[in-house]
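Rotation project, supervised by the postdoc (A.L.). Task for the rotation student: set up a whole-complex structure prediction and record inputs and outputs verbatim in this book. Inputs entered:
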Amino acid sequence: MVKEVITSPKTGDSCIHVKHSSGLDIYICEMKGFSSVEALFGTKYGSINTMFRQKGDKDYTTVPEGIAHFLEHKLFENEDCDVFELYAKTGASGNAFTSFDKTAYLFSCSKNYQESLRILLDFVQKPYFTQATVDKEQGIIGQEIKMTNDNPEWRVFFNMLRCMYHEHPVKIDIAGTVESIAQIDADLLYKCYHTFYNLNNMVLSIAGNISADEVLAICDECLKPCEDKGLETVFPEEPDTIVQKELIEKQPVGASIFNIGYKCTDCRSEERLVKSMQASIAASILSDASSDMYQRLLKEGIINSSFGTEIFTGDGYFTVIFSGESDSPAVVRDAVADEVDRMIREGVCEKDFQRIKKSTYGMLVRELNNVESVANLMMNSHMEETGPYDAITVLSEMTCEDVLEFMKTELKRDKLVMSVIEGM
Amino acid sequence: MRYKRTELAGNIGFSSIIDEKFKTGSLTVRFITELSGELATANALGVGVLSSSSSKYKTLALLNEKLSSLYGAALSTFSRKRGDVQILGLTSSWIVNKYAIDGEDVNAEMLDMIRGCIFEPNAENGEFDAESFAITKKDLLDRIDAELNNKRGYALSRAAEIAFSGEPAEFSCYGTKEAASTITSAEAYKAYRRLLETAQIEIYYIAPEEEPKVLEMFKESFANVNRNSGSIEFCRISPAKPETITVADEYDVLQCKMVMSFKSDSDDIFALKMLSTIFGETPVSKLFLNVREKLSLCYYCACRYTSPKGTIMVDIGVERDNIEKSKAEILHQLDEICSGNVTDEEIQSALLSLDNALTQIGDTPASYSGWYFERFCDGRIKTPQEQFEDYSNVTKERIIEAAKTLRLDSVYLMLDKKGEA
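Outputs recorded:
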């Protein structure tokens, strides 16, 4: 077991990282004065991981869309009971989520965290699937898929990804489709489980009113050592180009919504963190609520206060997104592209850059003020192969020129797409 | 943590909550008034303009520029509904001086900005600045339109309209699109002045350290306001309709929604909350285990208890063909409780779940503010631990009695169009 204390040089916050002998990475943050505990047990396995192999496998295995999410649902059932029944005895609130590149099981509680942690570590390491329980879940997930397809925010986002990506599985719905989940059976679930739920591919993150020694003792007691099986995931080759410039869909909505996105070059680890921070600052300088572009569009009644930006990135994808409500989304798209061109031509205002940098710093400090955020931060940064406090350091070293360079190399008109959901 | 509420003047309360663990300061000012179909929109607009400019920061751009230079401090306004009452307000948070890398006095700057927004809004000759008003008005109109975008939320709002028809709670906290389209800047300003002068006002300051200047600022500023405030009735139980009514709308959706509104005339609010928790508020509730897990009818089927109206609403997303089956199962599960089918284990897990939620109060500034405001509305300030004791004292018999008082008032259905054929 290797233990290190990680400290933020800017705020003084610290946490402990342990490489446990079982193969699991563990992050612990004792937060004085807080009552609650947030724990996440996550695996680097999300909806995009549909092709994989392990050491010794000759060929890659391809699995149906939505299987990571299906597996998340099914892991909540033990052989003898439902996991929620176990949490009900400790009072913890248990849950789980599957995203594009991860699945995490979590609980939040304010008492008996030790027992809840044992439940979490135990059930995630103890799969139990039968065809009958798999069949039962089809109806529940089928309704979840229909619910999300009725959600225009969800649709507009996936339609944008479909405009951008030819092959990368980021364009597929996290839960899959009613047809794709029909192909899932117990054997496939076990195969995916044994591939991705290897402790060498997982992380435990726990923050709040806890004792690091207690947490580690429980980990020693509950974790079953795992052999690193050399997991390898691959993605189909993705062309640099976009698929189509725009996609407009009609749905019963009261207000039309849009996602406008630049397809950028993907990268990994620290490079991704640096580039994400540059992208985030670039997007804010271009369009935050005090920017010229935002003010002009607002005064003309083209956008409203729902307008915002997001950096969406993971293995094999990197996008800068502008979203909101508008009856004239093409005007917004053109304004964004024109503003990018103008800044590339005229340069980024140093004063604006410093202001946005400060604002971003404030946001990062606030994140450390909340038990749930800290637990998520530690898990996410580990999965991104960076440290929990690296963002503040990267920010402090960033220059105006870095941001301008990002705009020049990544925000290109021929990589700009627009997705719109408008009323029927 | 140190909590103290000071009465500043008639019906103005200032609550200070000091907790050393926080890195932020936050301030929330709530204006509380009777929800009225006539005034809801003007109130929402009148308060809404406050976060778009002030007499010092004349435009939204200047205001936002200042906020971002203060380390991304947040300032926004809101309008909400709590039973028959409209709660409007302004809320703000910022990182405290200790974390300001350039040594700015962020606390003082934010206090000055909030004072300006509330007491020196960007208004002249009895109306708000035209540009600030126009931006806020468009935002409100769009927000009303966008309610349909969230199908589950929209179904719940429609169900409330139907269940509380003829009562103030039937109205939206944003009012109507028609009112928002025609209202003038002068009318919105008049509405804001009326709130400033007549509403119950509750202020919450949450920070790691005491700051007497905050209380002083509000005291001095309100000394210049001619106050004439009446009392607010926070709880008004809604009577059940003599016969259950069903209302259906059709939309081009893939999944239908059903909301069943049950009403109770019981004043045993702790038993009703325990009942609601056991019935459908957790993943071990009767609705989750039976309607979702056993019958696989849905992804979600849950309930929520609205104590100011004595109402429990059950909502579910379901196939059209399964609506009747779901409804029958929901009613069956309620019947089970009425017939005494509530185990000690169910009661215990409901208590643990409530205890868990209550003990976490205080881990965020918003949870402190929300807790003490809710208790103010209840008419008795108490700690989360005291509230837990009230739940602990609820017996199985009280839960069963509370269940027996529930009447199905109305059912709202959002149907897909496929069923027409």
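Student's summary: The first strand of chain A starts at residue 2 and ends at 7.
Supervisor addendum: Chain A has a mean pLDDT of 96.
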